[in-house]
Amino acid sequence: MSTGPCGTLDLLEVLATPTTAPTTGTRPPRAPHRPADTVDDVAAVCALVNGNPLHANDRREVVSAILAEAAAHGGAVDPNGVRARLAVTNADGSTDYRVYPRVIGATYQALCTAGVLEFTGWIPNTDARGRNSGKQARSYRLTRQPSRQETPTR
User: Of 34, 56, 77, 83, which residue is least crowded by CB atoms under 10 Å?
Assistant: First the structure.
């Protein structure tokens, strides 16, 4: 992988590179309901979504929302805030995402694997649209500021 002028990984290159499994030590603890043998399956699915060029614009949108959330909260990344940044309101008042929803989680996984995000704990999920409201959601911290090359552009 190439590095930017500050020696940091290029975020978009990291997202485009399929991974087979998260690096040891960067994976957040499993949710109590997730069997251990599904962790590798989740990593494989995330790698497929991240490696698909059809989702490149969606990944840029998600990374932009994560960076905006971190900038607004001193490095803390609340997935509820990121989802709100990705939501659009339809004429009938319902909401949708500007991105394919599965790209969101796959992007988080890739950024954690690359060491850009760090798991910090669990918070209540407010995603009523996805029927996850009240469930636990992972919260993160941006571990390093991305270089100019890592900042997504359109």
Answer: 34
Interval 74-104: pLDDT, tens: 999 999 999 999 999 899 988 888 998 888 9
Give the tens place of pLDDT for each residue, 27-66.
555 555 555 555 565 556 656 565 666 778 898 899 999 9
Backbone dihedral angles phi then psi of residue 120, each to the nearest 5 degrees? -120, -15
Please state, in angstroms and rounded to a whole number, the distance separating the CA atoms of residues 17 and 7: 18
User: What backbone phi and psi angles, to 5 degrees, belong to 26?
Assistant: -105, -10
| pTM score over 0.70 | no
